[in-house]
Amino acid sequence: MQEALGVIETLGFATAMEAADAAVKAANVTLGDWLRVGGGKVNIIVRGDVAAVKAAVEAGVAAASQIGEVQGQTVIPRPSDKLVPTFPIDVSAQTTKRKK
Questions:
Q1: How do the pLDDT tens digits run along the chain, 100 residues long?
Q2: Are 56 and 48 in contact, with CB atoms under 8 Å apart?
Q3: What span, in angstroms and rounded, lies between the C-alpha atoms of 40 and 86?
Q4: Phi and psi dihedrals of 44, rounded to 5?
Q5: What is the CATH number of the domain that holds 20?
């Protein structure tokens, strides 16, 4: 089963880490990677099932907005096979699930 991808773009590393922390705490997702994209922007990528990724992105955006600037966000429910290789993560790998 292909996993959804979520991306949160922030201004600043601390803001990105706040988003990442909140995202992985809010839902059963895996932090795929974080990327510095220039101009102080940092993107975090999460993966998991669609509902979990949506919840994680919402929580990450809310938390990051409290301390800095969020410049963008998206959830891609079923990323194209042509898109997936461009991401620096292996979305075909089994997601490590948190035990409840």
A1: 578 999 999 999 999 999 999 999 999 999 988 889 889 999 999 999 999 999 999 999 999 999 999 999 999 998 887 776 666 555 444 444 444 4
A2: yes
A3: 21
A4: -115, 145
A5: 3.30.70.1710
